[in-house]
């Protein structure tokens, strides 16, 4: 890497047409599309390091990635070229040169995800691709109370995906909660790390509590028992968004990005 510049990208994408972030044989992924496009721009083979490995169908409002390049092109030129060549469901919001010690994944302190539910008898034309439609009224206060049991460090064995190679299932939840804009309900959760499908599994269980199928303390008991069979269904991928990656102050994006005025569409 000696002599190469480190470029950091802030990326937004709609994940519906892709098999997740990470490159995999025989499947179209976000990383593959970005790397191929970057290689065309820089005229060199490019490897992109992503902060979060979002799964198939999952979206990102603020994915972070970095690449090491020998190209002399300014970061802003790379950004403009990417946005001119990328498909319309992937956009680079920012590009900047950063010191070589920065690593999009390993430098991150925490990540934040949001899950969106359209809770209305009639499905929304505009939300159907970006939310889980639940026509029965959910008990939002019960779901809020249940979510508080997630705070702190817990063993999330009950939410470990089948075939997962995670060495530890212990994770620390920094914050979580529910917000509501009319029928649009948003569950947000920030943690130092996540298991695969963990957020969608948590949402599925919280929804069962909201529907009255499980008691409010069911999630707390589930964390203690570790019984995957007692958790709720895995929520559909289309409602999940990676919304923020937290870094040490020296690598933060600054207020104009932290406030995220572009972050979503809660009022639709």
How many strands, what sense, and barrel or not for the largest sheet?
10 strands, mixed
Tally of separate helices: 6
Terminal CA distance reads 45 Å
CATH architecture tag of the largest domain: 2-Layer Sandwich
Secondary-structure element order, N to C:
EHEEHEEEHEEEHHEH
- Please give the radius of gyration in angstroms: 19 Å
Spans of 5+ residues with little confidence (pLDDT < 50)?
Answer: none
Helix content: 10-25%
Write down the overall geometry: globular
Instruction: State the CATH class of the largest domain.
Output: Alpha Beta
Question: What's the short version?
Answer:
This protein has 268 residues and is α+β, with helices and mostly antiparallel strands. The chain has helices at 30-42, 75-85, 140-147, 198-210, 218-225, 255-258; strands at 5-13, 48-50, 59-69, 90-98, 110-118, 132-133, 152-155, 170-181, 184-191, 240-246.
Describe this structure in words.
The protein is α+β, with helices and mostly antiparallel strands and 268 residues long. It folds into two domains: 5-107, Pseudouridine synthase I, catalytic domain, N-terminal subdomain (Alpha-Beta Plaits), CATH 3.30.70; 110-242, Alpha-Beta Plaits (2-Layer Sandwich). It is 21% helix and 28% strand. Strands 1, 2, 3, 4, 5, 6, 7, 8, 9 and 10 form a ten-stranded mixed sheet that branches. Strand 8 (170-181) and strand 9 form a beta hairpin. It is globular, with a radius of gyration of 19 Å. The chain starts with a strand and ends in a 10-residue tail after the last helix.
